[in-house]
Amino acid sequence: MIEVEQLTKEYNGKKVVDQISFHVKKGEIFAFLGPNGAGKSTTVQMLTTLIAVSSGHATINQYDIERDQKNVRLQIGVALQETGIDNDLTGQELLVLQGKLFGFSQEKAVERAHELLELVGLAADGKRRSGTYSGGMKRRLDLALTLVHQPTVLFLDEPTTGLDPASRLQIWTEVRRLNEEYGTTIFLTTQYLEEADQLADRIAIINDGKLIAEGTAAELKAMNGAERIEVVLEDQSASEAFRAAFSGRIEKEIVLLPSAGTETLKQVVRYLDDHHLTARSLVVKQPSLDDVFIQLTGQAYKEDK
Amino acid sequence: MWRETLILTKRSLLVTLRNPFSFIPNLIISVFFLLVYTSGLSGISSLPQFGGVDYLNFILPVSIVSGAVGGAGGAGQALVKDIESGYFARLLLTPVSRTAIVLGPMLAGMLQLFVQTLLIFGMGFLLGLSIPAGSAGFFLTIVLALGFGLAFAGYSVGVALKTRNAQAAQAGTLLFFPLIFLSTTFVPKELIEAEWLKIAATLNPTTYIMEGMRAVLLRETIDWSVYTQGVLVAAVLSLAMVVFAALNARGALKK
User: Fold this and answer.
1) Are both A235 and A93 inside the same structural domain?
2) Which end of chain A has fewer CB atoms surrounding its CB within 10 Å, N or C?
3) Domain segments of chain B as ranges
4) Pair A205, A121 in one domain
5) Which residues cross the membrane (chain B) (predicted)?
6) Interface predicted TM-score (ipTM) over 0.95
7) CA torsion through residues A123, A113, A179, A291, sign
């Protein structure tokens, strides 16, 4: 569905996106994960024909993003990081206009506008100027505008950045629904590890313009080994012997032990019992994308709140 | 492409109408010019070089052209607003041709100037304007005003796309001063004494527009060769501006 080969964008000699290659399958939810300034938005802008490519190439549904832009635009729906709404027009006017620009007749455009206002819960506000809408309402109108022509591929550039947790969940539900009900292929960028983990079938991690890993969440986590058990002992003088018994390691007061499921957990609990040790805390940690990021880049992952 | 251009022109007009302060000040300024020039300067038309024409007819094109130059900035301002709201990016994401996307606000700007020109004429008639060549003079002036309006709206749209900055787009309208004042604005070319000003007036496209209007407004017989020159200048400028704007449309995203 989306094929990207060696795509590069240079600004003043600096490679903002540096020879990235990946592909997104039809019907997939693909997350482009990376910290602020990693090159996510630039990639989206290239793939959606908004800015020129410096080198490399990409196709969407077989259409080349440089040579066949009109067809690319017919395939894709794009919600950029910032909403694209003219405050002087009403929600209804904007939707009708959008439909007509995609070739709908007046009647068809009006019909579709009503449908979408209903869908995003703005039916009562369609006749008000969008300048009077709240931030959340504008986001929903923006999504509706993106869906007018029933795109087969949806690009969502940081759809939940800056949203409160409840609104974030709402967007997740909506994205899953679009994907399941209409089979829409979804390419989303995010700086939230959890979002990529929860939502995406596959994830590509981008840092400093370079693609550093790609795979399912499980595959990426597996790169960093299996789950582990983290224990903090009441009597920390026993930590060293405890660590050695399970060939783990110590970070500050925490003893980290490699784990192979419940069997290891049983052994750990038995060990503590046998040695009359009390654990101040004991947690089983699933490997996280956070760890993957640290391992690949040597730096902690920073989310921009 | 024409269907989309029409749709986008309508949209730009709707936005303009919903922001009356985007055009009312300029309207007042051009009517003001007409009033001040006619009452303050009309005496000079008794000079022999004017050949006995009415100074009101002579100065009317200045009012129209300065209205066009001042008002066309509005098209660029509206475009910068679209870039800043992100709506321009949404338009770029539609399959509509880039030319239609830039022509929409240009044509809306042109129509705005059309209405403005009619109002200036109305004001002129109230001041006792009579056109020796009759209604032909009136319509031909309007045609030239439309052409020049399109060119200037195109210029402001092009600058807006190139700079993507409200202040820069505003500064682009500073071109107003050389265009209006380095020309045969207040007196015919024969009366300009400074050689450099004569040269500037010859190079200034505005001269050809104003002279073209005067060719149909001043006398009973229309001077077709001067008028055609004006139309050609307007057409070439318009075309160049459409191309300039369309080429700068891509990548015109918020900075």
Assistant:
1) no
2) C
3) 2-247
4) yes
5) 21-38, 58-80, 101-126, 138-161, 168-187, 226-247
6) no
7) negative
Chain B residues within 8 A of A83 when measuring between CB atoms: 86
Number of domains present in the structure of chain A: 2
- B31 pLDDT more than 90: no
**Structure tokens belonging to residue A257:** 């032990």
Is residue A301 a part of any domain in this protein?
no
Q: Do A171 and A84 reside in the same domain of the chain? A: yes
The answer to the question of residue A302 being in a domain is no
Report the chain B residue with the minimal C-alpha distance to residue A41: B253
Residues A261 and A124 in one domain: no
Estimate the share of chain B in helix, then strand, then coil, as percent rounded to the nearest 5: 80, 0, 20
**Residue A167 to residues A18, A140, A190, Cα–Cα distance (Å):** 33, 11, 15
Q: Closest Cα partner for B104 from B15, B236, B231?
A: B15
Residues of A with CB below 8 A from B94's CB? 73, 98, 101-102
Instruction: Tell me if residue A94 falls in helix, strand or coil.
Output: helix
Task: Tell me: do A152 and A232 sit in the same domain.
Answer: no
Determine whether the interchain pair B89/A76 forms a contact, defined as Cβ–Cβ distance below 8 Å: no
What CATH number has the domain bearing residue A86?
A: 3.40.50.300
Phi/psi class of residue A19: alpha, beta or left (left: φ > 0; alpha: ψ in -120 to 50)?
left
Does A100 share its domain with A163? yes
CB contact under 8 A, B95 and A50: no
Nearest to B180 by CA among B198, B162, B207: B207
Spatial contact of A73 and A148, defined as CB atoms under 8 Å apart = no
Q: Average pLDDT for residues A260-270, to the nearest whole number?
A: 83
Give residue B178's identity as a one-letter amino acid code: P
Q: Is residue A276 part of a domain?
A: yes
Q: Residues of chain A with pLDDT > 70: what percent?
A: 97
Residues of B within 8 A of A100 (CB-CB) are 7
Q: Would you call A194 an interface residue with chain B, using a CB distance cutoff of 8 Å? A: no
Do A17 and A105 lie in a common domain? Answer: yes
Between chain A and chain B, how many beta carbons pairs sit less than 8 Å apart?
69
**Least CB-CB distance to A101: which of B86, B96, B251?**
B96
Where is the domain boundary, A222, A244, A260? A222
* pLDDT tens digits along B177-222: 788 788 888 777 778 888 888 888 888 899 999 999 999 999 888 9
For residue A168, give the amino acid letter: R
Closest CA to A285 of A244, A225, A243, A208: A225
